[in-house]
């Protein structure tokens, strides 16, 4: 069963992605962007009324088959499709239940402490759960004593992040889209709501990017930094999830 907040998020997500799709055929000539509800409903093989109720946040029941057709009609990525199912109250039964503990799993702590390169663990709300000295040195202002250990709060609200991260705007947007994929697992947690509400209130970019409804899987790749002491640095980011606690992440940065 879904709650009103969940249904509101689902409706906003479907509507935002419908409005991104380009019209086809003669409809492509119109100035209004995106597909109309009846066009998406026909493409997905669902009723216009059912689609309307979803976008309005009403309490409607959706089968996995109907949601699968809707996800294909919306051209959703794997991460976006997972988010759609999460908001609809449908989870993979093989997924292990989420745990409330924010403590880092022993496996993550062991790896973080064993490597010389920057490494840290994240809980499901993206709070740093463990880190090594190299990470503390790289992320000054985030992993330093007395700092707020949430990665999103650091990136969006700490002026040090804008100096540390070249192309801050693009990196921040991507980070948020990756977090939204995890938010689908945590929207019932009041701490997750409080985190998003604070960021929406305190940062214009976060508010705009959140309303865009973008969802991405957290991927590795090249990461550049402009460190206040060491100057320009480049690392390759690797992200892993421990099998015994998939709600946590292990992040390792190796020199590029």
Index terms:
256 residues, alpha+beta, 434 Repressor (Amino-terminal Domain), Beta-Lactamase, 2 domains, five-stranded antiparallel β-sheet, 12 helices, 5 strands, 12% strand, elongated
List segments where confidence is low: pLDDT < 50 over at least 5 consecutive residues: none
Mean of pLDDT:
88
What is the CATH architecture annotation of the largest domain?
2-Layer Sandwich
What oligomeric state is this?
A: single chain
- Strand order of the biggest β-sheet: 2-1-5-4-3
Count of discrete alpha- or pi-helical segments spanning 4 or more residues: 12
- Percent of residues in helices: 40-55%
Distance between the termini: 47 Å
Structural account:
The chain has 256 residues and is α+β, with helices and mostly antiparallel strands. The chain folds into 2 domains: 4-87, 434 Repressor (Amino-terminal Domain) (Orthogonal Bundle), CATH 1.10.260.40; 106-255, Beta-Lactamase (2-Layer Sandwich), CATH 3.30.450. The protein is 46% helix and 12% strand. The longest helix is centred in the C-terminal third of the chain and has 19 residues, at 168-186. The model has no long low-confidence stretch (mean pLDDT 88).
What is this structure, in a nutshell?
With 256 residues, this protein is an alpha+beta fold. 46% of the residues lie in helices and 12% in strands. The mean pLDDT is 88.
């Amino acid at each position: 069963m879904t709650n009103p907040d969940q249904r509101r998020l689902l409706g906003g997500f479907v509507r935002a992605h419908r409005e991104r799709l380009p019209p086809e055929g003669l409809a492509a000539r119109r100035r209004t962007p995106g597909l109309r509800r009846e066009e998406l409903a026909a493409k997905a093989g669902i009723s216009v009324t059912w689609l309307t109720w979803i976008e309005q946040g009403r309490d409607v029941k959706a089968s996995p088959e109907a949601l699968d057709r809707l996800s294909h009609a919306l051209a959703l990525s794997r991460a976006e499709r997972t988010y759609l199912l999460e908001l609809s109250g449908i989870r993979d039964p093989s997924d292990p239940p989420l745990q409330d503990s924010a403590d880092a799993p022993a496996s993550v702590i062991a790896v973080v402490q064993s490597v010389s390169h920057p490494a840290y663990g994240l809980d499901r709300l993206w709070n740093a759960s463990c880190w090594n000295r190299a990470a503390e040195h790289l992320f000054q202002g985030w992993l330093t004593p007395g700092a707020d250990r949430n990665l999103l709060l650091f990136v969006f609200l700490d002026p040090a992040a804008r100096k540390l991260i070249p192309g801050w705007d693009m990196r921040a947007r991507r980070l948020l889209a990756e977090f939204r994929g995890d938010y689908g697992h945590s929207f019932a947690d009041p701490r997750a709501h409080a985190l998003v509400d604070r960021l929406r209130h305190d940062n214009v970019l976060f508010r705009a990017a959140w309303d865009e409804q973008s969802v991405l899987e957290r991927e590795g790749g090249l990461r550049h930094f402009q460190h206040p002491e060491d100057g320009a640095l480049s690392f390759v980011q690797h992200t892993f999830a421990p099998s015994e606690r998939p709600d946590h992440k292990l992040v390792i940065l190796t020199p590029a």
